[in-house]
Amino acid sequence: MKRKETVxxxxxxxxxxxxxxxxxxxxxxxxxGLLKQLSKRLVEKALQSEMDDHLGYxxxxxxxxxxxxxxxxxxxxxxDNGVISVEVPRDRASTFEPILLPNRQTRIPSxxxxxxxxxAKGMSLSDIQIQIQELYGAEVSESLISNITDSVxxxxxxxxxxxxxxxxxxxxxxxxxxxxxQDKRIINKxxxxxxxxx
Length: 198
Hints:
This protein is α+β, with helices and mostly antiparallel strands.
């Protein structure tokens, strides 16, 4: 509990210092605003810490190990705050596998949740692509969106085929009509919904 309070106090103090130093907080959410810069610094600091742990010593310490730091590589990453350019540390033996941002991954996992949420609301792949472009300024291919949505299909099928309860005290039935394409023409179809409350 004391650790959480210390982190919370540290964040609070950092915000106070920013406000007192006269930082223009109106630009916090701008294209290259403070929030995006903080995200970049936080990700890079975490990657440096992972490299320290991987090599067994910090950046400025001496070591007899043959595997040492070997420059940085730049990587474009899609985050909740837009696209940021991150400097990823490398090691000479090429054995460093970051946990926060694995090799060949170009997006923070929370973006997948947003794509799945948009898909669940009935948006098409091209609509999702446009939304991601407008919200984050990121180019995401339709095939990537399709791969993300396909990754949960198995879980959806398991959920759809789960055994139902033998008794539901309350059951609601409803129906709504949607237009669908069938046999090269558009027709109305009824979609029936049953909601059982245990």
